[in-house]
Design a protein that fits this description.
With 179 residues, this protein is α/β, with parallel strands linked by helices. It is built from 6 helices and 5 strands; from the N terminus they run E-H-E-H-H-E-H-E-H-E-H. The mean pLDDT is 96.
Length: 179
């Protein structure tokens, strides 16, 4: 039986470039026999972490919104992938807020070992991805049994649909196939 692959898509734009990259990754993962799920963070109610640290005792967040359910799905996933546009050379605010709200996972018996990052940006310089990679690596580093196993960067894509025909789509598909 395959792995449980959970992908969090963190673009505020529906059917945008990040979503296309996410879909390519998930198509590869599904074709390799894995169980896949995609969660679009846009439209979800996800408040900011309050820093109360109650989650360290309960492994659940005291805030009753969509983030708690998403974090519990993250806990049970074997593989987590994040798809995000690069905003100001970092992950989108939607993803950063969700990473903060995944604090209940810290110190818990989480299943995930492999984390992947899928990035899109208007800037096509490879260095445009550096801040996003650093942000996600910082989160992954807090989970000693997990590793950032791969990253795909699609630069030079700004408008919805600009990613069509981009080589990053094939890279994301191959990365997903290999989870």
């Amino acid at each position: 039986m395959g792995k449980k692959v959970l992908l969090l898509s963190a673009s505020p734009r529906k059917n945008g470039n990040s979503s296309a990259l996410a879909d390519a990754f998930l198509r590869g993962a599904a074709e390799a026999g894995n169980e896949t799920e995609k969660i679009e963070l846009s439209g979800k109610q996800i408040g900011f972490c309050r820093g109360c640290l109650a989650c360290h005792d309960t492994s659940r967040c005291v805030i009753r919104d969509d983030a708690d359910e998403i974090a519990q799905k993250m806990r049970r996933a074997d593989v987590i992938a994040f798809a995000t546009p690069v905003y100001y050379y970092c992950v989108s605010g939607q993803l950063k807020t969700m990473l903060d709200r995944a604090n209940p996972l810290y110190g818990s018996d989480y299943a995930f070992r492999s984390v992947y990052l899928l990035l899109t940006a208007a800037d096509d310089a490879p260095s445009a991805a550096d801040g996003s990679v650093k942000a996600v690596q910082g989160w992954v580093d807090c989970f000693e049994r997990a590793s950032l196993c791969g990253c795909v960067f699609a630069g030079g894509v700004e408008g919805v649909g600009d990613i069509a025909g981009h080589s990053a789509l094939a890279e994301a598909y191959a990365l997903g196939k290999g989870v």
